[in-house]
Fold these 4 entries.
Entry 1:
Amino acid sequence: MSWRSLIQNMPGQVRRWLLVAGAAFMLFWFVFFDSYSLLSRIRWHQESTKLNSENAQLRSEIDELEAQLARPLTDEDVERIAREEYGMTRPGEVVYRVEEK
């Protein structure tokens, strides 16, 4: 006996119940377990939103840094950088380093 003849010999309510149960199972599978499930799509959308906002923040930071690079350095800026970052001093000057905790 084949499946087709077995299904055709069933009463209408049983066939309808099997059809609804099969459709419900497929819907359940697509929502939760499929590789492109609804839950995966929601997670991907949240991650995409987070990455886009982070990308926008980094782009604004890059624009600020490029604006700083476009501005020429004054003599005071050069002296401040030389003293703070490279520890350079004037002749006869004593420097005491203070480290923050």
Entry 2:
Amino acid sequence: MTAAITYKKGRRIRIFVGEAQAWQGRPLYQSIVEAARQHGVLRVVVFRGIEGFGPEHHLSTDRIVDISENLPIVIDIIEREERIASLLPILDRSINRGMMTMTAIDIVVGAEV
């Protein structure tokens, strides 16, 4: 027997920062993950990029050791629509440099097959 599939409205917040960025004495991405966990966020995933650049167009790449100290980090946060507003002030406090995007999504619930 399969469970009924339902959809909930949600948001995906995608945060682009550098690996070397810190907040409160620890890597920024770790601080964001911990704050999101304490907030009860549905899902958080951190991706470490192998190459990229930010607004100043300084290239970071793992191909060249001399410029690999600040590789790109992407943090994806998935949260229900009704809870997203309370999460934004937490992110605003911790992210001084970087970029954040927010996309409307459908969260699939009960997708057991």
Entry 3:
Amino acid sequence: MFKKLAIAFMFCVCAFGASAQGDLKFAHINTMELFEAMPERVDSEKKLEATSKQLEGELLKMQEEFQKKYNEFMASADTLPESIKVRRMQEVEEINTRIQNFQQTARQELQKQQNDMMKPIMDKIQKAIQQVGEENGFVYIFDLASPSILYHSSKSTDAMPLVKGKLGIK
């Protein structure tokens, strides 16, 4: 709370101090909306979906193997000697452990791939926003996708069309 008040105070001080220098230009943009409009996003999501389906297929095979071994073990557990029963139970447990490890590794791999694919898109957006800000003399461009913006007036310039133009998006 104190941090927000301090930021608001500094903003007001800067605004009043700079008002003698002329009008300050502020703009806003919704980066999430812009991100959704990026054509590169669609390609990245398709690649991510393909990887996800491939990993799901592998997981399904592992689960089928587990189910088969488990059913075999349960069907013959009463008739097996103790040493064979213990060994087969260990096999079932090993398969279950492999499944859990695979799931964790797959989640990490998907997260890394998503980060790797989305970072260049976000960098491109950030670069375009900076260029629009410099070219149009904006003091600030606020991101409406961020929850820290509590208010924007109709006097604020929407930088979305300018940034989309910079990126070649309609």
Entry 4:
Amino acid sequence: MYALVEIKGKQYKAEKGAVLTVDRFENQDGEALEFDKVLMVADGDNTKVGAPYVAGAKVKAVVEDTFKAKKVKILKFKRRKGYLRQKGHRQQFTKIKVEDIIGA
């Protein structure tokens, strides 16, 4: 059984026991999360597609870890002008583990 779920404007395929890397949540490690914006639930031959969401379907997950991605370097440069600007950015992510999928 799996579900397509919308988390912070992005779509993820959630299966029971799967670990998803999503944009950062403020929740502490071990806290439970519940997502009700489920776009589709598939269980073998039975498939429910929402318009836009499946009514009564939920995905329950637990926060495992919050971490930063590798640094992305931003560089502005103009040749022969002595102009060089460097910046860096590290995006923050949260790992969540899918505990259960409730399909209506």
